[in-house]
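User: I'm preparing a small set of examples for a lab meeting where we compare how different chains pack in three dimensions. I only have the primary sequence for this one, and I'd like the structure in token form so I can line it up with the others. Please keep the answer compact; I'll paste it straight into my notes.
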Amino acid sequence: MMFQRYTHLVDDALAGLAPSRETCRWIMDGDDVQLLALLQAAYVPREKVFGRKVKVHILNNVQNGRCQEDCGYCSQSKDSDAPIEAYPMKTDEQIFAEAEQAAKNGASRYCMVLSGRGPSMERTKKLAGLIKGVKDKYPVEVCLSVGLIDDQKAQILADAGLDRLNHNLNTSERMYKDICTTHTYQDRVNTIVAAKKAGMSSCSGLIVGMNETTDDIIDVAMKLRELEVPSIPVNFLIPIEGNPMYSDHTLTPEKCLRALCLLRLINPTAEIRAAAGREGHLKALQPLAFWPANSLFVDGYLTTRGSDMANTYRMIREAGFEVEGNKLYEAEGGEAQAYRVDDTALPILKPEVSRKSSCVPS
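Assistant: Understood. Below is the structure token output for the 362-residue chain.
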């Protein structure tokens, strides 16, 4: 009977039913939760929809800084003192070159991100041309994160072939005023709705670790379900010095894994992404994220470093999962069988016992 509750989680997820709020609170806070059993419960619907594949996303920070919004978690906001170098929109040549590199490095999705409240009509049309160009040249899906957009701009981007429009809800409606005052939660919801009306897929997620309550996490997860968002990045707040929101000191590897399981069980058919902060917060438990999550970013985020491609791909394979790339990318074989200690290329023998050692007993 000990694992009956986990069986019910699986049955409900496979039937497309969301867990009750009481169950959601238990998933996040229950003292008697068996983490491995919870991960397995989240894995069953993940495996049914996505098998053992892991989608790889590569971000391109197309325009950095100079944002007049006051999002407290962002190093590009007007209220951040983070020492970032602002730059205008990259050239077309740079954007295409980085798209090509992303495709060759195994990305299934190339994500272009621009800082700012939202694009002008002129900028929207320029982005439409870039999207079409990338789609014509390279075998990758394209995702765009460009701030707030209306129905007309969404349709222009959709007509250009944009696969996904990203705009994160980040937290609950109740808490939103605590993290941003220059736009509203409803503004963000409207952008997701505009993408859907234009026939585009949407990408929207949350940030855990901003002093939110468990109910805030549940609320945003349920809202994403209500909006039928098919791609959900689960971010864990990165403590960037100079940002108004630095750290709430609540994130542990287990809490992060519980959050990923919660998002999977509430949204059983969605692409769940272990997104920003996975490296620093999940630590040695990173591979367990593949049980609830089926995608991730490689090579860093907008302004912060992340795991490089080689180590990330190796982690995916060693956990028994498969990198889902594209036709330009051919996976290297043999990595999982290589013996190594602490990701170094140092000799296996200790220096004091190796013949090459200068330590010779008298």
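A couple of notes for your slides: Residues 4-337 form a domain with the TIM Barrel fold (CATH 3.20.20.70). The chain has twelve helices and ten strands.

User: Perfect, thanks.
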